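ingest -> validate -> predict -> emit
validate: passed (alphabet ok, no gaps, 82 aa)
predict: started
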Amino acid sequence: MAGKVPDFDGTQICLQVDPEAFFPDTNDRLAIKMAKEICMGCHFRIPCLEYAVSNPDFIGIWGGTTPRQRQEIRSLRRRSVA
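emit:
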């Protein structure tokens, strides 16, 4: 079910930040919030999010969402198709 890799062009904001910022401890709400805020300013947020939603094994913050949020998106999409 893995999705197609977005056509990242090297201008995505996450490349300008320590990659560890996108893999915060699950209990560190401030670090999670900061990572999400970085994503919100990126023009690749939606393709990044769609890629992560289609790859359920992904951990960390992708497209401004946590793994749990992406699971909720997948669940909602399945329900809307049924």
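The mean pLDDT is 93.
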